[in-house]
Amino acid sequence: MSTGPLPPGRRIGVFGGAFDPPHNAHVALARAAIAQFSLDTLHVVPTGHAWHKSQALSAPAHRLAMARLAFESIPHVEVDEREVQRPGPTFTIDTLLALQAENQGAQIYLFIGADQFAAFRQWHRWQEILDIAIICIAGRAQSMPAEPQFEAYEQRRSRFTLLDLPLMPVSATQIRQLTASGTATAGEITRLVPEAVARYISQHQLYRSH
After folding, report:
1. Do residues 17 and 26 lie in contact, with contact meaning Cβ atoms separated by under 8 Å?
2. CB atoms within 10 A of CB 182
3. For FRET with 130, which of 7, 156, 166, 200 sits at 20 to 30 Å CA-CA?
4. Could you give the 3-state DSSP secondary structure of residue 78?
């Protein structure tokens, strides 16, 4: 695993996800990524058609709007619409190839959770992802990856590093369930998501049971 000094040159981060809704752990990850990797830009990329998710996502317009509200106060963050606008299934490799073409010579960092890392070899064209990006694994409340998990990558260990992130046991599923139950107070939701996102969820009555 890479632990050496950061290379010179421009550094572009990529942080993808459903952001349904974006929550405080997402915001903490973005701040930590920019600070620890001295990123010039962090692309926050709401997914389009999430082929790997069983539940239907909220409308792209809602997820984009919430992402802009969640990350608007963080310098160097750009909410990137390309996956929402792309027809068909959303694959990370396509986004990385496009960003590589737009940022010749820059080092690209892809930020994922420990749970995503556990399934990384199931990702579409994962070997090519390793050719393009350094994979930065953020801690989740469950656990950080154990050392044996890296053995599957043999000579590619230098393509992985860790993002030092405080453990924050919050998930979008938890927020959707709380909202759908109708029992959560505004204060409970605001402790889990940025205040502007909580207002947006309330105004548009997202995640309510019908």
Report:
1. yes
2. 8
3. 166
4. strand
Q: What does the pLDDT look like over 111-145, one tens digit per residue?
A: 999 889 989 999 999 999 999 999 999 975 455 55
Pair of tokens at residue 161: 């590093």
Angle, CA of 62, 67 and 70, to the nearest 5°? 125
Place of tokens 């369930």: 177
Helical H runs in the chain?
24-37, 60-71, 82-85, 92-102, 114-118, 126-132, 172-181, 186-190, 195-203
Q: How is residue 145 annotated by DSSP?
A: P
Encoding tokens for residue 5?
């000094």
Strands 11-17 and 160-163: unpaired
Is the pLDDT score of 197 beyond 70? yes
In sequence order, the 6+-apart residues with CB closer than 8 A to the CB of 79 are 44, 46, 64, 67, 68, 71
The rounded mean pLDDT for the chain is 88
Non-local CB neighbours of 57 within 8 Å, separated by 6+ positions: 18, 20, 47, 50, 63
DSSP string, 52-71: T-SSPPPPHHHHHHHHHHHH
Nearest to 142 by CA among 173, 117, 121, 169: 169
Tell me which residue has tokens 């860790």. Answer: 162
Confidence of residue 70 (pLDDT cuts 50, 70, 90): very high
